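Contributing new records

If you add data, match the layout below exactly. Sequence lines come first and carry their own label; structure lines follow with theirs. Keep one chain per record. Anything else will be rejected by the validation script.
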Amino acid sequence: MEFGMNNGTAAPVRPGFGFVRGTIVDMMPAGRGGRRGDGCMQLVSLETEDGNPVNVILSPAAYVVDYETLSVGMNCTFWYLADAPMILIYPPQYNAVVAARDRNDRMVDVSRYGQNLVNQERTLQLKLDGSVDIRTINNQYFQGSPANHDLVVIYETSTRSIPAQTTPKKIVVLCG
């Protein structure tokens, strides 16, 4: 069984990830609770595709795909926990869990993957073979099954089926 079902009865569905996509217009050190930034966290200001401003806090715990250094002018996507508390300010501000530079040669999906390796949105199914590189966010080899974990899936192509199927280039398990 996949998400939300247990012996034929409905179960609460675990909230997933939201995302915001845009062009980085500024990056500066950030702090928490009114403290000045110590350089460990970044406040990333974006202009979204529809021209709206959004701020993203990028902490040292956030996974940046391919460990790429982000900078002003890059088009990026930032994923956050959809059920995380959010301060009500303008522009909106999110705490990033994952960040990725947008590129034409790869796709990135961040979601909870169930027992059958289908994402929570039921749009992507993973086909694993011995070639898939599976790591933790600190770049160590992941020794368990990626099923029933929050995953960052990096892939190049997929089928046109529903759900689409792919053999990913890399999977990063968001442990904890």
